[in-house]
Amino acid sequence: MQYSDKVMDHFYNPRNIGTIEDPDGVGEVGNPKCGDIMKMMIKVDNGVISDIKFKTFGCGAAIATSSMGTQMIKGKTLKEAWNISNKAVVEALDGLPPAKVHCSVLAEQAIKEAIKDYCKKNNLDYKSLVADI
Amino acid sequence: MIYLDNAATTKILPDVLDEMMIYLTEEYGNPSSFYDLGQRSKIAINKARDIIAESIGAKSDEIYFTSCGTESDNWAIRGAAYLGKKQGKNHIISSEFEHHAVLHTLESLKQEGFEITLLPVTSDGFVDLEKLKLEVRDTTCLVTIMLANNEIGTIQPIEKIKKICEEKNILFHTDAVQAVGKIKIDVKELGVDMLSISGHKIHAPKGVGALYIKSGIKLPSYIHGGGQERNKRAGTENVASIVGFGKAVKIAIDKMSENNKYVLNLRNQLIDYILEKIPATKLNGDKQKRLPGNINISFEGIEGESILLMLRKYEICASTGSACTSGSLDPSHVLLSIGLSHEMAHGSIRFTISELNTQEEIDIVKKVLPDIIKKLREMSPIWK
Fold it and tell me: pTM of the full predicted structure?
Protein backbone atom coordinates (compact mmCIF):
# COMPACT_ATOMS: atom_id res chain seq x y z
CA MET A 1 0.00 0.00 0.00
CA GLN A 2 1.57 3.29 -1.08
CA TYR A 3 0.79 6.14 1.30
CA SER A 4 1.95 9.76 1.07
CA ASP A 5 4.56 11.09 3.49
CA LYS A 6 1.82 13.11 5.20
CA VAL A 7 -0.25 9.98 5.82
CA MET A 8 2.77 8.22 7.27
CA ASP A 9 3.59 11.23 9.45
CA HIS A 10 0.06 11.30 10.89
CA PHE A 11 0.12 7.53 11.33
CA TYR A 12 3.44 7.43 13.17
CA ASN A 13 2.75 10.64 15.12
CA PRO A 14 -1.01 10.90 15.46
CA ARG A 15 -2.28 14.28 16.67
CA ASN A 16 -4.99 14.46 19.31
CA ILE A 17 -4.90 10.78 20.22
CA GLY A 18 -6.55 9.82 23.49
CA THR A 19 -9.75 10.52 25.36
CA ILE A 20 -11.40 13.50 27.02
CA GLU A 21 -12.86 13.10 30.45
CA ASP A 22 -16.35 14.53 30.50
CA PRO A 23 -16.62 15.19 26.78
CA ASP A 24 -19.38 17.49 25.51
CA GLY A 25 -19.98 15.26 22.52
CA VAL A 26 -18.98 11.75 21.42
CA GLY A 27 -19.17 10.23 17.96
CA GLU A 28 -18.42 6.58 17.23
CA VAL A 29 -18.74 5.11 13.75
CA GLY A 30 -17.72 1.97 11.88
CA ASN A 31 -17.74 -1.64 12.99
CA PRO A 32 -15.23 -4.43 13.48
CA LYS A 33 -16.61 -6.28 10.46
CA CYS A 34 -15.16 -3.68 8.11
CA GLY A 35 -12.06 -3.36 10.24
CA ASP A 36 -12.56 0.32 11.11
CA ILE A 37 -13.93 1.94 14.25
CA MET A 38 -13.43 5.62 15.02
CA LYS A 39 -14.36 7.33 18.25
CA MET A 40 -14.11 11.10 18.56
CA MET A 41 -14.69 13.20 21.66
CA ILE A 42 -15.13 16.97 21.65
CA LYS A 43 -15.10 19.82 24.14
CA VAL A 44 -17.16 22.83 23.08
CA ASP A 45 -16.74 26.36 24.43
CA ASN A 46 -19.01 29.13 23.14
CA GLY A 47 -19.78 27.21 19.97
CA VAL A 48 -16.12 26.51 19.27
CA ILE A 49 -14.49 23.07 19.39
CA SER A 50 -11.85 23.83 22.00
CA ASP A 51 -10.54 20.29 22.30
CA ILE A 52 -10.88 17.03 20.40
CA LYS A 53 -9.44 13.57 20.97
CA PHE A 54 -9.81 10.34 19.03
CA LYS A 55 -9.22 6.63 19.24
CA THR A 56 -9.22 4.48 16.12
CA PHE A 57 -9.21 0.76 15.42
CA GLY A 58 -8.19 0.40 11.81
CA CYS A 59 -5.62 0.60 9.09
CA GLY A 60 -2.99 3.27 8.54
CA ALA A 61 -5.38 5.42 6.52
CA ALA A 62 -8.04 5.22 9.25
CA ILE A 63 -5.60 6.43 11.89
CA ALA A 64 -4.12 9.14 9.65
CA THR A 65 -7.53 10.52 8.56
CA SER A 66 -8.67 10.60 12.20
CA SER A 67 -5.55 12.50 13.14
CA MET A 68 -5.76 14.97 10.26
CA GLY A 69 -9.53 15.39 10.73
CA THR A 70 -9.18 16.27 14.40
CA GLN A 71 -6.35 18.69 13.63
CA MET A 72 -8.46 20.45 11.00
CA ILE A 73 -11.49 21.00 13.22
CA LYS A 74 -9.79 21.92 16.47
CA GLY A 75 -10.49 25.59 17.19
CA LYS A 76 -13.23 25.76 14.57
CA THR A 77 -16.86 26.68 15.22
CA LEU A 78 -19.32 23.79 15.15
CA LYS A 79 -20.61 25.00 11.83
CA GLU A 80 -17.15 25.26 10.31
CA ALA A 81 -16.29 21.81 11.63
CA TRP A 82 -19.49 20.35 10.19
CA ASN A 83 -18.61 21.66 6.76
CA ILE A 84 -15.14 20.12 6.58
CA SER A 85 -15.59 17.36 4.04
CA ASN A 86 -13.77 14.06 3.75
CA LYS A 87 -12.37 15.41 0.49
CA ALA A 88 -10.66 18.24 2.36
CA VAL A 89 -9.11 15.71 4.76
CA VAL A 90 -7.87 13.58 1.85
CA GLU A 91 -6.39 16.66 0.15
CA ALA A 92 -4.68 17.74 3.37
CA LEU A 93 -3.07 14.28 3.51
CA ASP A 94 -1.82 14.64 -0.10
CA GLY A 95 -4.25 11.97 -1.21
CA LEU A 96 -5.17 8.40 -0.28
CA PRO A 97 -5.14 5.18 -2.32
CA PRO A 98 -8.63 4.71 -3.87
CA ALA A 99 -9.38 1.67 -1.70
CA LYS A 100 -8.80 3.79 1.41
CA VAL A 101 -10.97 6.82 0.63
CA HIS A 102 -13.78 5.28 2.69
CA CYS A 103 -11.63 5.86 5.81
CA SER A 104 -11.86 9.61 5.27
CA VAL A 105 -15.65 9.27 4.96
CA LEU A 106 -15.65 7.55 8.35
CA ALA A 107 -13.59 10.37 9.86
CA GLU A 108 -16.08 12.94 8.54
CA GLN A 109 -18.97 10.87 9.91
CA ALA A 110 -17.33 10.52 13.33
CA ILE A 111 -16.92 14.31 13.58
CA LYS A 112 -20.53 14.87 12.52
CA GLU A 113 -21.77 12.29 15.02
CA ALA A 114 -19.83 14.02 17.82
CA ILE A 115 -21.40 17.37 16.86
CA LYS A 116 -24.86 15.79 16.72
CA ASP A 117 -24.29 14.24 20.13
CA TYR A 118 -23.27 17.63 21.54
CA CYS A 119 -26.41 19.22 20.08
CA LYS A 120 -28.63 16.47 21.46
CA LYS A 121 -27.18 16.81 24.95
CA ASN A 122 -27.75 20.56 24.83
CA ASN A 123 -31.19 20.47 23.25
CA LEU A 124 -29.94 22.15 20.11
CA ASP A 125 -31.18 21.41 16.64
CA TYR A 126 -28.00 20.51 14.76
CA LYS A 127 -29.67 21.19 11.43
CA SER A 128 -30.29 24.84 12.24
CA LEU A 129 -26.91 25.10 13.95
CA VAL A 130 -25.00 24.10 10.88
CA ALA A 131 -27.29 25.63 8.28
CA ASP A 132 -26.35 28.76 6.39
CA ILE A 133 -28.27 31.71 7.79
CA MET B 1 15.58 -5.21 5.56
CA ILE B 2 14.17 -8.19 7.42
CA TYR B 3 12.21 -10.33 5.00
CA LEU B 4 9.66 -12.48 6.81
CA ASP B 5 7.18 -13.04 4.00
CA ASN B 6 8.59 -16.19 2.44
CA ALA B 7 5.15 -17.65 1.80
CA ALA B 8 4.49 -14.71 -0.54
CA THR B 9 7.68 -15.23 -2.49
CA THR B 10 11.35 -15.96 -1.87
CA LYS B 11 14.74 -14.65 -2.86
CA ILE B 12 16.41 -16.46 -5.75
CA LEU B 13 19.36 -18.43 -4.39
CA PRO B 14 22.77 -17.54 -5.92
CA ASP B 15 23.29 -21.18 -6.99
CA VAL B 16 19.92 -21.13 -8.73
CA LEU B 17 20.75 -17.94 -10.59
CA ASP B 18 24.19 -19.32 -11.56
CA GLU B 19 22.60 -22.37 -13.09
CA MET B 20 20.10 -20.24 -15.01
CA MET B 21 22.48 -17.62 -16.34
CA ILE B 22 23.80 -19.50 -19.34
CA TYR B 23 20.21 -20.03 -20.56
CA LEU B 24 19.61 -16.28 -20.39
CA THR B 25 22.75 -15.60 -22.42
CA GLU B 26 24.55 -18.12 -24.64
CA GLU B 27 22.14 -21.06 -24.53
CA TYR B 28 19.11 -19.28 -25.96
CA GLY B 29 17.91 -22.06 -28.23
CA ASN B 30 14.25 -22.98 -28.57
CA PRO B 31 13.83 -26.51 -27.15
CA SER B 32 11.61 -27.35 -30.14
CA SER B 33 14.39 -26.58 -32.63
CA PHE B 34 16.21 -29.35 -34.48
CA TYR B 35 19.82 -28.12 -34.22
CA ASP B 36 22.12 -28.58 -31.22
CA LEU B 37 21.50 -25.15 -29.68
CA GLY B 38 17.80 -26.02 -29.38
CA GLN B 39 18.38 -29.58 -28.30
CA ARG B 40 20.67 -28.49 -25.49
CA SER B 41 17.80 -26.37 -24.13
CA LYS B 42 15.54 -29.37 -24.38
CA ILE B 43 18.02 -31.52 -22.47
CA ALA B 44 18.22 -28.81 -19.78
CA ILE B 45 14.46 -28.66 -19.21
CA ASN B 46 14.21 -32.42 -19.14
CA LYS B 47 16.91 -32.56 -16.49
CA ALA B 48 14.81 -30.17 -14.38
CA ARG B 49 11.78 -32.35 -15.07
CA ASP B 50 13.63 -35.41 -13.79
CA ILE B 51 14.62 -33.64 -10.57
CA ILE B 52 11.10 -32.38 -9.90
CA ALA B 53 9.55 -35.76 -10.71
CA GLU B 54 11.94 -37.56 -8.38
CA SER B 55 11.30 -35.05 -5.58
CA ILE B 56 7.63 -36.03 -5.41
CA GLY B 57 7.95 -39.70 -6.31
CA ALA B 58 6.57 -39.25 -9.82
CA LYS B 59 7.77 -40.30 -13.27
CA SER B 60 9.34 -37.61 -15.46
CA ASP B 61 6.60 -37.86 -18.07
CA GLU B 62 4.04 -37.04 -15.40
CA ILE B 63 5.46 -33.51 -14.91
CA TYR B 64 4.25 -30.62 -17.09
CA PHE B 65 5.77 -27.16 -16.79
CA THR B 66 3.41 -24.19 -16.52
CA SER B 67 3.79 -20.47 -15.90
CA CYS B 68 2.87 -20.59 -12.20
CA GLY B 69 1.00 -22.40 -9.47
CA THR B 70 -2.19 -20.57 -10.35
CA GLU B 71 -2.05 -21.87 -13.92
CA SER B 72 -1.48 -25.39 -12.60
CA ASP B 73 -4.54 -25.10 -10.36
CA ASN B 74 -6.68 -23.69 -13.16
CA TRP B 75 -5.58 -26.40 -15.57
CA ALA B 76 -6.10 -29.28 -13.14
CA ILE B 77 -9.52 -28.12 -11.96
CA ARG B 78 -10.94 -27.05 -15.33
CA GLY B 79 -9.52 -30.13 -16.99
CA ALA B 80 -11.06 -32.44 -14.41
CA ALA B 81 -14.36 -30.57 -14.66
CA TYR B 82 -14.50 -31.06 -18.44
CA LEU B 83 -13.60 -34.75 -18.10
CA GLY B 84 -16.40 -35.05 -15.56
CA LYS B 85 -18.87 -33.26 -17.77
CA LYS B 86 -18.24 -35.77 -20.57
CA GLN B 87 -19.31 -38.53 -18.16
CA GLY B 88 -22.33 -36.57 -17.00
CA LYS B 89 -20.72 -35.51 -13.71
CA ASN B 90 -20.90 -31.92 -12.54
CA HIS B 91 -20.04 -31.86 -8.84
CA ILE B 92 -16.74 -30.73 -7.29
CA ILE B 93 -15.69 -30.86 -3.64
CA SER B 94 -13.12 -28.50 -2.18
CA SER B 95 -12.64 -26.61 1.07
CA GLU B 96 -13.51 -23.18 2.40
CA PHE B 97 -9.91 -22.13 2.93
CA GLU B 98 -8.31 -22.94 -0.42
CA HIS B 99 -6.15 -20.39 -2.22
CA HIS B 100 -8.06 -18.03 -4.52
CA ALA B 101 -6.46 -19.79 -7.50
CA VAL B 102 -8.72 -22.71 -6.58
CA LEU B 103 -11.73 -20.89 -5.12
CA HIS B 104 -12.10 -18.41 -7.98
CA THR B 105 -11.67 -21.16 -10.58
CA LEU B 106 -14.46 -23.07 -8.84
CA GLU B 107 -16.56 -19.90 -8.73
CA SER B 108 -16.23 -19.53 -12.50
CA LEU B 109 -17.16 -23.20 -13.02
CA LYS B 110 -20.23 -22.60 -10.87
CA GLN B 111 -21.29 -19.90 -13.34
CA GLU B 112 -21.02 -22.57 -16.02
CA GLY B 113 -23.37 -24.89 -14.18
CA PHE B 114 -21.09 -26.98 -11.98
CA GLU B 115 -22.12 -27.66 -8.42
CA ILE B 116 -19.51 -26.85 -5.82
CA THR B 117 -19.32 -28.09 -2.23
CA LEU B 118 -16.82 -26.40 0.06
CA LEU B 119 -15.97 -28.47 3.12
CA PRO B 120 -15.77 -26.60 6.43
CA VAL B 121 -12.53 -26.22 8.35
CA THR B 122 -11.97 -26.99 12.03
CA SER B 123 -10.84 -24.29 14.45
CA ASP B 124 -7.28 -25.68 14.49
CA GLY B 125 -7.05 -25.39 10.72
CA PHE B 126 -7.88 -28.76 9.20
CA VAL B 127 -10.41 -29.58 6.53
CA ASP B 128 -13.18 -31.64 8.09
CA LEU B 129 -12.59 -34.83 6.14
CA GLU B 130 -15.36 -36.66 7.99
CA LYS B 131 -17.74 -34.41 6.08
CA LEU B 132 -16.14 -35.46 2.80
CA LYS B 133 -17.73 -38.92 2.95
CA LEU B 134 -21.15 -37.34 3.42
CA GLU B 135 -20.74 -34.94 0.53
CA VAL B 136 -19.54 -37.38 -2.13
CA ARG B 137 -22.19 -37.97 -4.80
CA ASP B 138 -22.44 -40.17 -7.86
CA THR B 139 -21.95 -36.97 -9.86
CA THR B 140 -18.75 -35.91 -8.07
CA CYS B 141 -15.91 -35.65 -10.59
CA LEU B 142 -13.18 -33.92 -8.57
CA VAL B 143 -11.95 -33.40 -5.03
CA THR B 144 -9.39 -30.62 -4.65
CA ILE B 145 -7.89 -29.97 -1.20
CA MET B 146 -4.66 -28.10 -0.57
CA LEU B 147 -1.71 -29.88 1.00
CA ALA B 148 -0.65 -26.99 3.24
CA ASN B 149 -2.55 -23.79 3.82
CA ASN B 150 -0.82 -20.64 2.58
CA GLU B 151 -1.94 -18.40 5.42
CA ILE B 152 -1.85 -20.56 8.53
CA GLY B 153 0.48 -23.29 7.28
CA THR B 154 -1.55 -26.24 8.55
CA ILE B 155 -0.72 -29.49 6.77
CA GLN B 156 -3.81 -31.37 5.67
CA PRO B 157 -4.06 -35.15 6.12
CA ILE B 158 -5.01 -35.55 2.47
CA GLU B 159 -3.74 -39.14 2.26
CA LYS B 160 -7.05 -40.05 3.91
CA ILE B 161 -8.94 -38.82 0.85
CA LYS B 162 -7.34 -41.34 -1.50
CA LYS B 163 -9.58 -44.27 -0.57
CA ILE B 164 -12.81 -42.35 -0.91
CA CYS B 165 -11.80 -41.01 -4.32
CA GLU B 166 -10.60 -44.38 -5.60
CA GLU B 167 -13.80 -46.16 -4.58
CA LYS B 168 -15.94 -43.62 -6.38
CA ASN B 169 -13.64 -43.05 -9.36
CA ILE B 170 -13.22 -39.36 -8.52
CA LEU B 171 -10.17 -37.35 -9.60
CA PHE B 172 -8.14 -35.96 -6.72
CA HIS B 173 -6.05 -32.78 -6.99
CA THR B 174 -3.97 -30.97 -4.41
CA ASP B 175 -2.43 -27.52 -4.44
CA ALA B 176 1.01 -28.23 -2.97
CA VAL B 177 2.47 -24.81 -3.75
CA GLN B 178 3.33 -24.06 -0.12
CA ALA B 179 4.32 -27.59 0.81
CA VAL B 180 6.90 -28.50 -1.84
CA GLY B 181 10.43 -28.36 -0.49
CA LYS B 182 9.15 -28.01 3.09
CA ILE B 183 7.62 -31.43 3.75
CA LYS B 184 8.28 -34.84 2.23
CA ILE B 185 5.89 -35.44 -0.64
CA ASP B 186 5.19 -38.72 -2.39
CA VAL B 187 2.35 -38.57 -4.87
CA LYS B 188 1.68 -42.29 -4.48
CA GLU B 189 1.44 -42.12 -0.70
CA LEU B 190 -0.79 -39.07 -0.96
CA GLY B 191 -2.84 -40.84 -3.62
CA VAL B 192 -3.30 -37.72 -5.71
CA ASP B 193 -4.01 -37.66 -9.44
CA MET B 194 -2.79 -34.09 -9.88
CA LEU B 195 -0.54 -31.84 -7.83
CA SER B 196 0.31 -28.16 -8.36
CA ILE B 197 3.77 -26.74 -7.70
CA SER B 198 5.28 -23.26 -7.99
CA GLY B 199 8.92 -22.23 -8.34
CA HIS B 200 9.11 -18.86 -6.64
CA LYS B 201 8.08 -20.17 -3.21
CA ILE B 202 11.31 -22.17 -3.02
CA HIS B 203 13.95 -19.70 -4.21
CA ALA B 204 13.40 -20.18 -7.95
CA PRO B 205 12.26 -17.25 -10.11
CA LYS B 206 8.66 -16.15 -10.54
CA GLY B 207 6.86 -17.25 -13.69
CA VAL B 208 7.39 -20.98 -13.53
CA GLY B 209 5.32 -23.79 -12.07
CA ALA B 210 4.43 -27.37 -12.77
CA LEU B 211 1.51 -29.73 -12.71
CA TYR B 212 1.90 -33.40 -11.91
CA ILE B 213 -0.64 -35.44 -13.84
CA LYS B 214 -0.71 -39.14 -13.06
CA SER B 215 -0.12 -41.19 -16.20
CA GLY B 216 -3.29 -42.50 -17.72
CA ILE B 217 -5.32 -39.38 -16.94
CA LYS B 218 -6.29 -37.72 -20.20
CA LEU B 219 -6.48 -34.18 -18.91
CA PRO B 220 -7.40 -31.84 -21.79
CA SER B 221 -5.03 -29.01 -22.64
CA TYR B 222 -5.60 -25.61 -21.13
CA ILE B 223 -3.21 -23.50 -23.20
CA HIS B 224 -3.49 -24.35 -26.90
CA GLY B 225 -0.84 -23.87 -29.55
CA GLY B 226 2.36 -25.70 -30.39
CA GLY B 227 3.36 -29.19 -29.39
CA GLN B 228 5.36 -28.33 -26.26
CA GLU B 229 5.07 -30.44 -23.11
CA ARG B 230 3.99 -33.50 -25.08
CA ASN B 231 1.12 -31.60 -26.72
CA LYS B 232 -0.37 -30.81 -23.32
CA ARG B 233 0.79 -27.29 -22.60
CA ALA B 234 1.62 -25.07 -25.54
CA GLY B 235 3.98 -22.11 -25.53
CA THR B 236 7.75 -21.90 -25.83
CA GLU B 237 9.24 -23.10 -22.59
CA ASN B 238 10.66 -20.63 -20.06
CA VAL B 239 13.96 -22.48 -20.28
CA ALA B 240 16.07 -20.48 -17.83
CA SER B 241 13.35 -20.40 -15.18
CA ILE B 242 12.65 -24.11 -15.59
CA VAL B 243 16.36 -24.81 -15.11
CA GLY B 244 16.32 -22.60 -12.00
CA PHE B 245 13.19 -24.34 -10.77
CA GLY B 246 14.92 -27.72 -11.06
CA LYS B 247 17.98 -26.49 -9.22
CA ALA B 248 15.86 -24.91 -6.46
CA VAL B 249 13.92 -28.15 -5.95
CA LYS B 250 17.19 -30.09 -5.80
CA ILE B 251 18.60 -27.77 -3.14
CA ALA B 252 15.34 -27.76 -1.16
CA ILE B 253 15.16 -31.56 -1.12
CA ASP B 254 18.86 -32.03 -0.31
CA LYS B 255 18.71 -29.55 2.55
CA MET B 256 15.19 -30.20 3.76
CA SER B 257 15.94 -31.71 7.14
CA GLU B 258 18.77 -29.26 7.89
CA ASN B 259 16.67 -26.24 6.81
CA ASN B 260 13.57 -27.42 8.66
CA LYS B 261 15.47 -27.86 11.89
CA TYR B 262 16.92 -24.37 11.61
CA VAL B 263 13.66 -22.70 10.58
CA LEU B 264 11.59 -24.55 13.19
CA ASN B 265 13.83 -23.27 15.95
CA LEU B 266 13.44 -19.65 14.83
CA ARG B 267 9.70 -20.08 14.33
CA ASN B 268 8.98 -21.66 17.68
CA GLN B 269 11.08 -19.09 19.48
CA LEU B 270 9.12 -16.25 17.92
CA ILE B 271 5.73 -17.88 18.47
CA ASP B 272 6.49 -18.63 22.12
CA TYR B 273 7.89 -15.16 22.71
CA ILE B 274 4.89 -13.37 21.20
CA LEU B 275 2.32 -15.51 23.00
CA GLU B 276 4.14 -15.09 26.30
CA LYS B 277 5.07 -11.40 26.15
CA ILE B 278 2.05 -9.92 24.42
CA PRO B 279 -1.34 -10.40 26.07
CA ALA B 280 -4.54 -11.25 24.16
CA THR B 281 -2.81 -12.95 21.24
CA LYS B 282 -3.74 -16.16 19.49
CA LEU B 283 -1.76 -18.48 17.22
CA ASN B 284 -3.95 -19.34 14.25
CA GLY B 285 -3.74 -22.97 13.21
CA ASP B 286 -2.37 -26.00 15.01
CA LYS B 287 1.16 -25.48 16.32
CA GLN B 288 2.48 -28.96 15.49
CA LYS B 289 1.03 -29.90 12.12
CA ARG B 290 2.05 -26.73 10.32
CA LEU B 291 4.76 -25.73 7.85
CA PRO B 292 8.09 -25.12 9.57
CA GLY B 293 8.32 -21.42 8.73
CA ASN B 294 4.73 -20.31 9.28
CA ILE B 295 3.55 -18.01 12.05
CA ASN B 296 0.06 -16.52 11.97
CA ILE B 297 -1.03 -14.60 15.02
CA SER B 298 -4.07 -12.47 15.84
CA PHE B 299 -3.72 -9.49 18.15
CA GLU B 300 -6.92 -8.48 19.87
CA GLY B 301 -8.13 -4.88 19.53
CA ILE B 302 -5.98 -3.75 16.60
CA GLU B 303 -5.91 -4.04 12.85
CA GLY B 304 -3.30 -5.90 10.82
CA GLU B 305 -2.37 -3.28 8.26
CA SER B 306 -1.47 -0.80 10.98
CA ILE B 307 0.87 -3.43 12.47
CA LEU B 308 2.49 -3.89 9.04
CA LEU B 309 2.99 -0.13 8.72
CA MET B 310 4.63 0.02 12.14
CA LEU B 311 6.89 -2.90 11.14
CA ARG B 312 7.75 -1.05 7.95
CA LYS B 313 9.49 1.57 10.06
CA TYR B 314 11.98 -1.15 11.03
CA GLU B 315 12.06 -2.50 7.46
CA ILE B 316 10.39 -5.71 8.60
CA CYS B 317 8.33 -7.31 5.82
CA ALA B 318 5.37 -9.45 6.86
CA SER B 319 1.80 -9.76 5.62
CA THR B 320 -1.78 -9.72 6.77
CA GLY B 321 -3.46 -12.96 5.80
CA SER B 322 -2.13 -13.32 2.30
CA ALA B 323 -0.42 -10.89 -0.02
CA CYS B 324 -3.15 -11.45 -2.59
CA THR B 325 -5.77 -9.91 -0.31
CA SER B 326 -3.78 -7.12 1.31
CA GLY B 327 -5.29 -4.62 -1.12
CA SER B 328 -8.79 -5.59 -0.10
CA LEU B 329 -10.91 -4.56 2.84
CA ASP B 330 -12.34 -7.95 3.67
CA PRO B 331 -10.61 -9.97 6.32
CA SER B 332 -8.96 -13.21 5.26
CA HIS B 333 -11.39 -15.95 4.20
CA VAL B 334 -8.98 -18.47 5.71
CA LEU B 335 -9.16 -16.94 9.18
CA LEU B 336 -12.94 -16.62 8.97
CA SER B 337 -13.15 -20.29 7.94
CA ILE B 338 -11.41 -21.39 11.16
CA GLY B 339 -13.99 -19.46 13.13
CA LEU B 340 -12.22 -16.21 13.97
CA SER B 341 -14.39 -13.14 14.54
CA HIS B 342 -14.03 -10.38 11.96
CA GLU B 343 -12.19 -8.32 14.54
CA MET B 344 -9.60 -11.03 15.28
CA ALA B 345 -9.28 -11.84 11.58
CA HIS B 346 -8.55 -8.17 10.84
CA GLY B 347 -5.91 -8.18 13.57
CA SER B 348 -3.75 -10.97 12.17
CA ILE B 349 -0.17 -10.98 10.96
CA ARG B 350 1.70 -13.67 9.09
CA PHE B 351 5.45 -14.07 9.41
CA THR B 352 6.95 -16.75 7.17
CA ILE B 353 10.55 -17.63 7.91
CA SER B 354 13.05 -19.22 5.52
CA GLU B 355 16.54 -20.61 6.01
CA LEU B 356 17.91 -17.27 4.82
CA ASN B 357 16.64 -15.53 7.95
CA THR B 358 18.95 -15.12 10.92
CA GLN B 359 18.68 -15.25 14.69
CA GLU B 360 19.55 -11.52 14.78
CA GLU B 361 16.55 -10.75 12.59
CA ILE B 362 14.20 -12.71 14.82
CA ASP B 363 15.67 -10.92 17.84
CA ILE B 364 14.87 -7.54 16.29
CA VAL B 365 11.24 -8.60 15.73
CA LYS B 366 11.06 -9.74 19.34
CA LYS B 367 12.45 -6.40 20.45
CA VAL B 368 10.11 -4.13 18.50
CA LEU B 369 6.83 -6.04 18.28
CA PRO B 370 5.59 -5.72 21.89
CA ASP B 371 5.88 -1.92 21.79
CA ILE B 372 4.19 -1.72 18.39
CA ILE B 373 1.23 -3.71 19.67
CA LYS B 374 1.07 -1.64 22.85
CA LYS B 375 1.13 1.64 20.95
CA LEU B 376 -1.63 0.57 18.55
CA ARG B 377 -3.76 -0.77 21.37
CA GLU B 378 -3.46 2.57 23.17
CA MET B 379 -4.94 4.14 20.05
CA SER B 380 -7.78 1.63 19.77
CA PRO B 381 -11.30 2.37 21.05
CA ILE B 382 -12.05 -1.33 21.40
CA TRP B 383 -9.01 -2.24 23.49
CA LYS B 384 -9.82 -2.15 27.19
Answer: 0.95
